[in-house]
Amino acid sequence: MRLKLCGMLALALFFSVPLHAQDAKALVAKAVHSELAADQNDHSLWRYRDEQREQNKVSIVVNTRQGSVKRLIEKDGRPLSPAETQAEDARLQEFIHDSSRLAKQKKDAANDDKNATELLRMLPDAFIWTVKGHTADTLTLHFEPDPDFDAPDMQSRVLSAMNGDLVVNEKQQRIQEISGKLTRDVTFGYGLLGRLHQGGTFRVLRSEIAPNVWEITETHVHIEGKALLFKNIGQQQDEVQTDFTPVPAGTTLEQAVELSKPKK
User: Fold this and answer.
1) What is the pTM of this model?
2) CA 134, 168, 197: angle at the middle one, nearest 5?
3) With contact defined as beta carbons under 8 Å apart, do 4 and 41 qualify?
4) What is the pLDDT of residues 39-98, one digit of tens each?
5) Residue 44 and residue 46: Cα distance in Å, rounded?
6) pLDDT at position 230, please?
7) In Å, what is the CA distance from 35 to each residue of 86, 125, 139, 213?
8) How far apart are CA 205 and CA 220, in angstroms?
9) Considering just the CA atoms, what is the radius of gyration of the chain in Å?
10) What is the pLDDT of residue 229?
11) Cβ within 8 Å of residue 174, ≥6 positions away
12) Which phi and psi angles does 118 have, rounded to 5°?
């Protein structure tokens, strides 16, 4: 999800009393409010480099109003061969002319955004928050699971089993980083449907890629477990996104395919 402010009043309130007197939960709620408000107002489109380190692949992603194009440009540390590039061109042409696949991508993206928004809204209440540190630009808050929090679904059950830190950019009240660790095993269906093991970690970093526009630039997830019928499951993700450049609002999918080609 993008999740693109509290204004001067919020900042004035924040600095008007000593840091130790602040309600940490209220500070988190302010940052969540800023993220949700910014997301509603941000309609920007971007071209960026997506490096999936766990798969040793590099792609170029281009957003459009109709969907996103993702072109593989490197694998196993080398550029694609001419034959592989031709096959990738053919795959993209097939994709942008397949209405069912475009509809599925749009539906999946909307569902991801919905889930991310719901989890973001839960942050203040899912944890017990304390102020951990303060620099000139950031505020770091520590979170521990709140035993009184009633997780409504499987995603939030995983969330509520985490502890970790949240870093907020104070000037804009935007979430800059969140990292956590599973404090216990998380089971589904009394362990019959699945189990995520204690000790799994995640870390997400966000950067301001344009004035007041924040995007996820690094995602690191390392969680292991078991799924139905004892099949091993694992979420191993080390993804880095760089080289963000704006894409015009009227860009078509055909133009996105051309924009996704590596720059010479």
Assistant:
1) 0.84
2) 105
3) yes
4) 988 999 999 999 999 899 999 999 999 999 999 999 999 999 999 999 999 999 999 999
5) 7
6) 52
7) 41, 16, 16, 10
8) 9
9) 20
10) 52
11) 5, 31, 34, 35, 38, 168, 206, 208, 214
12) -65, -45
